[in-house]
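TODO from last week: model Disease resistance protein.
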Amino acid sequence: MKTLGKLPNLRYFSGWEVFVRKKMVCSRKGFPQLKTLLLRGLPNLEEWTVEEGAMPSLARLGISDCYKLKVFPEGMTFITTLKELEIRWMTRAFKGLLQEDGKDFYKIQHMPSIEFPNSEG
C-alpha cells in the first residue's frame, strides 16, 4: 500500500484479493487523488489504519468479504470528502459497529450515503 499510495494520479482502486497481509496502513498524504476505493476479498486483513491526511479526495468506499476485519478505521473520521460507504458481505458484528447504535457509528455519521447490502444479519 505504501507504493500505491505514492502514485500521484491514482483515482480508482479495486481488486479481489490484492492484499494478503494482516495489517494495512494508508499513510498521511497517501493516495492524494484517490476518489474510489473498493476493498474486496481480503481474507487475511485484520487491522486497517488510516492516518490523518490520507486519501484527502476519497468520495466512495466499499468494503466487501473482509471477514477478519473487526474495526472500522478511526482515521476515516478525518475524510470529509467521503460521500458513499457500502459494506457488503461482511459479518453481523462489523455491520453492528457501524449502525446508528454501534460504537463506531461516529466514524461514519458524516457520510450522506451508507448502505449494507448483503451483509450477514
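Done. Strands lie at 12-16, 23-26, 36-40, 47-50, 60-64, 84-88, 113-115.
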